[in-house]
């Protein structure tokens, strides 16, 4: 069994990274984000915004026809955008990778970033693009010290829950349980450091529902859709 696993980033895909970033910042009063320079080499533009609770909202868009950019372009053509990937900080990402490979799961990525192992599992096998980030200290994250600081005026301060649509929740739950090294999981629900991921039957729109925690300034937020996902607030 794994020592721990934390949901760190929820990734939304869009065809317009600048427009989507401006929309999210305006709606939630978030500060400037961080663009991972390594993603451009695989055809992706990104914009990662920090929340005070330690989680991050990330936007990705195609930037070229390099492999991951081309794959995202095809996905956007089919779906129009929305919930795309989950990044989970894991105590032993390499062991999780080995368990996945033994189960026949294909890897979308297997590399080191800033000295840490990063593994992505193919969405056709895992139900969605699941990334595990092997940063050994649960108090540390990639963007610490990069200037991606939470805005003191933000209307939200953490991600509490993601209802993510997958084709077969029961099969995906069994697979994730094995890969992550979890004990028995009930109701297709994974507790990832107090942030919950529910694997639910895939619907046409929206495929994901994200529950966000209001900051003390966020009392005026009302539930609704944004960038192809349904947003709820508590």
UniProtKB/TrEMBL annotation:
Highest taxon of the lineage: Bacteria
**What is the official name of this protein in its record?**
VOC domain-containing protein
What is the native source organism of this protein?
Virgisporangium ochraceum
């Amino acid at each position: 069994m794994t020592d721990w696993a934390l949901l760190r980033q929820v990734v939304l895909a869009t065809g317009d990274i600048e427009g989507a970033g401006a929309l999210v910042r305006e709606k939630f009063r978030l500060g400037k984000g961080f663009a991972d320079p390594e993603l451009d080499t695989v055809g992706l533009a990104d914009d990662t915004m920090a929340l005070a609770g330690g989680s991050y909202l990330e936007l990705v868009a195609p930037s070229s026809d390099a492999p991951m950019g081309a794959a995202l372009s095809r996905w956007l053509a089919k779906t129009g955008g929305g919930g795309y990937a989950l990044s989970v900080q894991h105590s032993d990402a390499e062991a999780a990778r080995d368990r996945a490979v033994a189960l026949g799961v294909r890897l979308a990525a297997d590399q080191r970033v800033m000295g840490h192992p990063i593994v992505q599992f193919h969405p056709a096998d895992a139900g969605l693009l699941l990334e595990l980030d092997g940063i050994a200290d649960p108090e540390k994250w990639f963007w610490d010290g990069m200037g991606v600081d939470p805005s003191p005026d933000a209307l939200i301060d953490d991600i509490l829950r993601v209802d993510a649509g997958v084709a077969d929740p029961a099969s995906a739950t069994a697979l994730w349980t094995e890969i992550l090294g979890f004990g028995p999981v009930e109701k297709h629900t994974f507790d990832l450091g107090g942030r919950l991921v529910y694997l639910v039957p895939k619907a046409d729109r929206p495929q994901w529902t994200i529950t966000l925690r209001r900051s003390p300034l966020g009392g005026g937020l009302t539930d609704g859709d944004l960038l192809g996902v349904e947003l709820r607030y508590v």
